[in-house]
């Protein structure tokens, strides 16, 4: 683009029409391109939109230096990164245009910046955004672009009253133009009424032209091709409707400025809201390339041209006052369009919607491009993510990502739009989103706890599910800070495990954290009672983490607890690790909670509302999980390499409880050793977690073989264990999105309560009678007895019962080992031996859980999720048992009641269940291992 000595663009200015450039680019501005056009062509304004910035920022490296300078060694949201560069360009253009603005007394010399197209249908949000941009840019010759939608008109009125210059965009009809002109007048009048000046407020009404002809001409061409009897009349309108529409809009403008209403405002210095002809590039090669400039020249108007059109007009455009010519002909054209049924009104309405959509699509592309630049800048500060997918799944994922983009999933998630899921109560459960930014915790209170905890040698967390699994991950992966106590997690009623922890601590030197959202969960209450007595009822050795108003909060107050940390009722337990339920134990361990959130922030920004799904790591993963589940690959197999192995237990709950319902969902498979491709069916999705540089070895080779065999494989890498918080948030987002893909509410747990009710009934019966309901084994050996659950009719020898149990497993089924025994290395190894044997023999997934811990984790999926689970429930007679203060039922009795209650509910849900009770005096789990191996 270069100017000329006798520029026809300058002649336009002399005819009363301002020439504006519809283009912004960093290199163009730096090289003096805009200044040259101002000097040589008399250019007096610049417009921008998301499409323009997408072309400028999304391609090439012109903005890389600016991105790097803005981000420095820190981080920011994608929207902020984009705005930093867009506003820099806008300010640079404003500076180039400032002499024009000053010379013309504020009547021209403007540069336009558009509010987010995502806000086109929100009045209040548009007002808020426009005010923010006006303040941020802080240039008097800025115009904020606001769409002339139904919601935009009242926003324009308010913004004009605020004294903000407005470029109204996406006007296609005379009716919508008159509405925004009324908004301009009303805004000025409101300022006059309150005594504010109006002589420096500018506005243009951007009336789009060529897009109308594109749509009209399509209709004309189609009808002519079909041999329409009105073909001649139709062809006579080709390329004329948009110009006629614009001319009549201008005729109305002339009538308006002649009105007493306008004259009263003009007397106070008001500047007219000029009509700006937009979309003036020719779309049809049959038309002259300056058509929409030559025919629309008149006083008090603007024509914003793309560079190509500007070059064409400079070369061979015709300057004459054409706007007021042929008005009768223009009226005839529109009358003919109506007579012939071309549907101009319908077209203009559709073009507004299409315009919003096109700008939204461009904004998505722009933000996606900026997101990629930001990720490249972050480098190793953001956890890595690689996938290898079979073609069919890869295609389904990409198609769903595009649907998610078009349907604004990123924004709707953060806005709390329940329609993203089932339209139920999902919006009530999104407190975990702001919690990921550290907004739910009181940092000062946590720092105080860190200092207080240094006076203790140990910290024991008493909680279940979301209250225990996240803290356990932090304890086992990150460990306690130097000088801070060791964290022990107790999420069980197993007497042996409780006794083992009790033997390792001195209650006089131990801080106990009682953690329960509801404050009435059975296990934490029993554990609190036991250790409160063991501590000598020293309330100052206890802190509570619970939701406001809970029974635990009242108990903490009554017993003089050191502190109570309130949870957020809008956060479900499985999404609570980045709230007080995870961060209070972290602080007690001496972890730098503020620093933890800082290392988590890159993923929070990456998963923000401003990051389109394809570039959003949480949404991309969630779509993958959901589409894999829909395709039958619903056994998500976790391969977490040391020292990240503990992450799997937290991930099990996060995936199983939210998604496992209505016969749908994801069954997480943790701690099942990797095998050769031949031992797996087509129901697997493998996810590996590893530290950077430590992925070599057997697992890496096996995963390569699995991917080669057509299994989907996801590899996630962390530069350091301290980045584990990024995975907490990535997977929270992914789980919520997987729920949307699967078609369920990922925030309820309808099947968990049933097991609790069954357990409660058995325990209450024991409290009343001193005995559990009697039961008879269906078969037994010297080492174990076999029991059927309620409603089941089983018979046979121990060997045949076990053989039949596992023989029933078919493709896509899975075997579960639910062990109500002490969770220790020996028992874990025994269960793993059985799992591998069953997997290899039956080619099915295997899961395992220690009870009652798994009841608050994977239990939901086992009962309500995909059918096909065959469960071996393992119980024992505890020796020795532990009494619970104030109760007849011991910990061992409660544990047996929980096992029986859960088995009965599983059987009621149609699951195959066989309970194996290890006899006192037998050889324990080893006897069962031998029997299972023999049965396969």
Question: How does this structure look, described?
Answer:
- The structure is a single chain.
- The chain has 936 residues and is α/β, with parallel strands linked by helices.
- The protein has 37 helices and 24 strands.
- The strands form four sheets. An eight-stranded parallel barrel has the order 1-2-3-4-5-6-7-8, surrounded by nine helices. Strands 19-20-24-23-21-22 form a six-stranded mixed beta sheet, sandwiched between helices.
- Helix 10 crosses helix 17 (344-378), helix 12 crosses helix 16 and helix 33 (798-807) crosses helix 37.
Question: How is this structure best summarized?
Answer:
The chain is α/β, with parallel strands linked by helices and 936 residues long.
Poorly predicted ranges (pLDDT <50, ≥5 residues)? Answer: none
The total count of strands amounts to 24
Query: For the residues shown, what is the average pLDDT?
Result: 96
Tell me the number of helical segments per DSSP (H or I, 4 or more residues long).
37
Residues in helices, as a percent range: 40-55%
The main pleated sheet reads as: 8 strands, parallel, barrel
Radius of gyration: 35 Å
* Spatial separation of the terminal alpha carbons: 79 Å
Shape summary:
elongated
- Strand order, largest beta sheet: 1-2-3-4-5-6-7-8
> What structural category arises from helix and sheet content?
alpha/beta
- Share in β-strands: 5-15%
